[in-house]
Amino acid sequence: MKYRSIFKQLIIYSLLILSSCVNSSDNTLPLSSVEEVTSISEDDISNSTIETSLPISSEEPTSEAPTSEEYVMTRVSYTNPIYNRDYPDPSGVYDPVQKAWFLYATGGRILKSTDGVNYAAVAYTFNTIPNWGTPNAGMWAPEVQYINGQYVMYYSLSVWGDNDPGIGVASAPRPQGPWTDHGKLFRSLEIGVNNSIAPGVFVAEDGRVYMIWGSMRGNYIVELTSDGLRLKAGSPEAAASTKIRVAGLDTSIGWTVDTYEGAYVRYWNGYYYLFLSMGTCCDGVNSTYQVVVSRSTSPTGPYVDDQGREMTARNVGKLVIAKNDMFVGTGHNAVIDDVNGEPWFYYHAFLRSGTGSSRILLMERMLFDENGWPYVENFEASSTPKIGPYFHKVVTS
Description:
This protein is mainly beta. It contains four helices and 25 strands. A hairpin with a 4-residue loop joins strand 4 and strand 5 (109-113). It is globular. 44% of the residues are buried.
């Protein structure tokens, strides 16, 4: 019995010593040494489809950046395309916690980059496509924004020729998920906008949240709740009576190729800039997609181009980017700032010499003219080496 008592005491002392070592700050592991992102093999990825066997990212949310690492701001070169696989309708965010870019596209595939240039697939937004839409609908043109402490994703459910597509919403603590689907915001028939797809969401300077959406059948704006998860009006029917047309023709007019879709809004120096794509998006090397921009001092418009023309007309807007000898169908853009605060323009295009089956991912540095209008160099896609965005490179201390 005496020896058992001594043995028990030795075990207790050993556990106390071990606990002290584990809790010692000198033995704390840096986040980068324990964080992993499960990459998806290129061979496992089917263009613009969701495989139900693919997992959502299993990473745990982080609350702060690593404390045992230092960073220097630097840049690397790139040449378009930056992701030479089908990646249509891109949107994205920069996460300052993980110091990484995350991009999203039709089909739900998520790409990640730590230098803003080299991207790899890390997950899908959902294991299975939500089923509140038209049967067999695909997930189109997701838009992700950081709103009130969480990442919020807006997505379209549609099939080609769908007479009642709609827009849903999901949220996540981190840009790679896991995503919680909150279901439908509205469908076309209940909100009174034909072809209700391609949402573009932004937070105004006063903190109010707005969505502009629509595709070649009028582009409309409504206000969302402060968390971005619901319609401010309460129901689709109530929102239908308060929506405002900001671009394109009235939704009662048929599909018109010289109107607009793919809305994206950014605020700079007193103006809300509304980017829109016009032309044909999906005709391979015959696609005529291009991006135009307008601006307004109010988030709800009216939006006008550099000639003072309102966007509620056909074939207006100041040109941002169009086709060239190498790339066609240049459109459906997003803008993401690098770590130096410089904006970069992300979009898709077809390679003119290719088969015309893949809308690949490209990017350009966003420039501004003397009157504050944004554009890309030469108003066309670049095909020669360029210096990329500023990023934070890890320097281990």
